[in-house]
């Protein structure tokens, strides 16, 4: 029976649960759900409410052409979200903060900033205080001046940006000219009266007649800037408000000559007075959370590492003034991906990579050992603590199940919640595999097996190498979907080699400053073990990877000819070129020695490549700039082109995509090209050029 993974158009049309927020009383969860647009060139997001006890059915809360995201609850149970939906003819064309009343009724705008709201940074647990992140032009003194200056730039079609510090771009977007700010809002100042609306409309009309900038609406709470003249300091690593909304804690950036590090600050919301709590050379502080009783601050302290040793991330707690700082869970050798105080404030609830999974942990504040609350093959995200009924809600996923909401009991029992995006059926199975490296180190991974793979009909093998490199194959990704390959008959190996997370710091150190050493031999060792299975066809194998996985794909291509085809996406090729041109050059120069950069660069082995490569790159990729893909293609042409300039290799180029291929129509072409290339070289079939590639 066909599944959603047999057809790419059906796959991209699957609804996707992207986020979850739990109400203060623990009775309902709000899901952010992405659905394919009618023209299939993007996704629209809406908010859905589901009961948090496992009963009932999903109920759609929002419906607008622009969509909604970033949902969070206020202390009163209202839902806050960010949307570009219009709130009037003169509304700015940018995302604003909106409020959906718990008692029912239409959503209403909370902000009207000319440049919009970037994100909802923090919401107070027991007051009307909210903090948003928003970009403001540095040359404007007031919100009205800022709106006028934006309009002038737009009318003149000016896009130029002047920088006086590093960096100038990040991942997939240019930085500036606007700077990030943290703006405080008092939701109690929202005025819903008819008189306020009439007065506001009259003021706007008068200002328009006088050809002056429109004043900020008096019916909305006027944002108070907590970070005047911030430069890039308000690109925060997490933010949290005390329950009473009086103090904001944020991991703010302190600029360095070629990068920045994160310091932990406390900001008085009423006055804007700032106190630095933690600032240490070679250390980042971030991801603050405040206890429900408003007495304790928790945060992540991360030393920055060096070329000699990897960085580490530790969980610390202290008083709100920074006093009594101490590390907890000292024997917990994992990197937290989320922190929240448990309902009794006696422990932190955390998630982290763990042995190819992503469990929920409880970290007691008294210094006792970490407790693992979930024990299954899933990864958990967006964990919300139910302070009233006990337990937790979260999103859960694996490589055969997309994210779906669940309730977790205090005993670890898991109950699925209703969802508007039911899990699609699949005929593939998920199997855990492992082997030992030559030094005895355990190397494990997941093997996705297609239906019917057995000794009589072994499946071709696709080695899929994860990115990062500090990552793990443990959670669903809509961008990297092995079930699509399994639906086409491939067994997909998802291994965690040296440098992967979830196995302790020593395993991260495995291959440090030597990416092409243990990570490569680890991959080959687990591939050997899987190829020895009788349900795998060891004569029909291929490899692929993106980002760090693309680096490894390039390294594999230059150091073995065991694979029939290799796909290398957004890949590092020449490390000496990559380091200074990526968007965070200091990081790469810090974790590699000059000798490591020279010896571990795949481009030195271009002449040894014997395997056909499919090179894929997006021009808007600022993390691994397009120059890496262009140089790889040039080097392949120099060494492998025939007299007519033809090669066994191919180059798939996306002028408008970034590190990931996010547009659904381009994702379809990406998979069509990848599968056509694999089928050509693994099965000897004629290359089926995707129709829309001309």
What features would you describe in this structure?
The chain is globular and about 75 Å long. The strands form 9 sheets. It has an 8-stranded mixed beta sheet, sandwiched between helices. Strands 1-2-3-4 form a 4-stranded antiparallel beta sheet, with no helix packed on it. It has a 4-stranded antiparallel beta sheet with strand order 5-6-7-8, with no helix packed on it. The protein contains 12 helices and 38 strands. It is an alpha+beta fold and 694 residues long. It starts with 7 loop residues before the first helix and ends in a 12-residue tail after the last helix. Among the domains are: 161 residues, no CATH class; 265 residues, Alpha/Beta hydrolase fold, catalytic domain (Rossmann fold), CATH 3.40.50.
List the helices and strands and how they pair.
Elements: H1 8-12, E1 16-22, E2 28-36, E3 43-51, E4 59-60, E5 68-73, E6 79-83, E7 96-100, E8 108-109, E9 119-123, E10 129-136, H2 143-155, E11 169-170, E12 173-174, E13 179-186, H3 194-209, E14 224-225, E15 239-241, E16 247-255, E17 260-268, E18 274-278, E19 283-290, E20 296-303, E21 312-319, E22 326-328, E23 336-341, E24 347-352, E25 360-364, E26 371-372, E27 379-385, E28 392-398, E29 401-408, E30 414-416, E31 429-436, E32 442-449, E33 459-465, H4 482-486, E34 491-496, H5 505-509, H6 518-531, E35 536-546, H7 548-559, E36 565-569, H8 575-581, H9 585-591, H10 594-599, E37 613-618, H11 626-640, E38 650-654, H12 664-682
Parallel strand pairs: 33-34, 33-35, 35-36, 36-37, 37-38
Antiparallel strand pairs: 1-2, 2-3, 3-4, 5-6, 6-7, 7-8, 9-10, 10-13, 11-12, 13-14, 15-16, 16-17, 17-18, 19-20, 20-21, 21-22, 23-24, 24-25, 25-26, 27-28, 28-29, 29-30, 31-32, 32-34
Helix pairs in contact: 8-9
């Amino acid at each position: 029976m066909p599944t959603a993974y047999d057809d790419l158009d059906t796959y991209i049309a699957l609804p996707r649960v992207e986020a979850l927020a739990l109400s203060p009383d623990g009775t309902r969860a709000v899901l952010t759900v992405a659905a394919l647009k009618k023209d299939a060139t993007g996704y629209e997001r809406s908010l859905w409410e589901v009961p948090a006890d496992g009963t009932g059915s999903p109920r759609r809360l929002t419906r607008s052409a622009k969509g909604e995201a970033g949902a969070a609850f206020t202390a009163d149970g209202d839902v806050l979200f960010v949307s570009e939906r219009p709130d009037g003819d003169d509304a700015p064309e940018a995302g604003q903060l909106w409020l959906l009343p718990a008692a029912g009724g239409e959503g209403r705008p909370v902000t009207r900033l000319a440049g919009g709201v970037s994100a909802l940074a923090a919401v107070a647990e027991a007051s009307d205080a909210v903090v948003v992140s928003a970009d403001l032009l540095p040359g404007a003194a007031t919100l009205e001046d800022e709106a006028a200056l934006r309009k002038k730039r737009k009318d003149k079609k000016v896009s130029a940006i002047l920088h006086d510090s590093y960096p100038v771009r990040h991942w997939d977007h240019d930085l500036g000219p606007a700077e990030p700010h943290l703006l405080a809002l008092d939701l109690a100042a929202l005025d819903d009266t008819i008189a306020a609306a009439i007065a506001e409309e009259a003021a706007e009309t008068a200002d328009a007649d006088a050809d002056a900038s429109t004043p900020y609406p008096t019916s909305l709470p006027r944002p108070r800037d907590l970070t005047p003249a911030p430069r890039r300091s308000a690109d925060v690593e997490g933010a949290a408000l005390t329950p009473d909304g009086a103090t904001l804690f944020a991991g703010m950036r302190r600029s360095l000559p070629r990068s920045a590090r994160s310091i932990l600050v406390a900001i008085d919301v009423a006055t804007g007075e700032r106190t630095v709590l933690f600032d240490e050379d070679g250390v980042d502080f971030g991801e603050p959370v405040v206890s429900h009783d408003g007495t304790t601050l928790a945060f992540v302290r991360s030393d920055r590492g060096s070329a000699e040793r990897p960085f580490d991330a530790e969980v610390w707690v202290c008083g709100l003034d920074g006093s009594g700082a101490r590390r907890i869970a000292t024997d917990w050798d994992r990197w937290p991906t989320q922190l929240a105080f448990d309902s009794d404030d006696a422990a932190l609830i955390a998630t982290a990579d763990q042995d190819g999974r992503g469990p929920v942990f409880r970290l007691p504040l008294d210094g006792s050992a970490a407790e693992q609350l979930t024990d299954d093959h899933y990864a958990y995200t967006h964990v919300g603590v139910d302070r009233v009924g006990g337990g937790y809600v979260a999103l859960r996923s694996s490589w055969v199940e997309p994210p779906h909401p669940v309730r977790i009991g205090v005993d670890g029992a898991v109950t699925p919640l209703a969802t508007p995006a039911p899990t699609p059926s699949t005929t593939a199975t998920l199997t855990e595999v492992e082997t030992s490296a030559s030094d005895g180190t355990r190397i494990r991974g997941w093997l996705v097996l297609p239906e019917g793979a057995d000794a009589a009909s072994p499946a071709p093998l696709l080695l899929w190498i994860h990115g990062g490199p500090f990552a793990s194959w443990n959670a669903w990704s809509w961008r990297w979907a092995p079930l699509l390959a399994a639906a086409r008959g491939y067994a997909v190996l998802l291994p965690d080699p040296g440098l992967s997370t979830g196995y302790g710091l020593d395993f991260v150190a495995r291959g440090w400053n030597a990416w092409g050493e243990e990570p490569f031999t680890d991959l080959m060792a687990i591939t050997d073990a899987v190829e020895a299975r009788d349900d795998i066809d060891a004569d029909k194998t291929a490899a692929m990877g993106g980002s760090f996985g693309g680096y490894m794909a390039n390294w594999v291509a230059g150091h073995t000819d065991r694979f029939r085809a290799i796909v290398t996406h957004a890949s590092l090729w020449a490390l000496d070129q990559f380091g200074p041109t990526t968007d965070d050059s200091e990081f790469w120069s810090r974790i590699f020695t000059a000798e490591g950069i020279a010896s571990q660069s795949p481009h030195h082995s271009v002449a040894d490549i014997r395997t056909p490569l499919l090179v894929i790159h997006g021009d808007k990729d600022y993390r691994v700039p397009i120059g890496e893909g262009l140089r790889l293609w040039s080097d392949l042409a120099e060494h492998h082109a025939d007299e007519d300039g033809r090669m066994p290799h191919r180059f798939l180029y996306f002028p408008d995509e970034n590190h990931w291929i996010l547009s659904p129509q381009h994702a379809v072409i990406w998979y069509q090209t990848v599968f056509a290339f694999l089928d050509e070289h693994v099965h000897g079939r004629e290359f089926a050029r995707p129709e829309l590639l001309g």
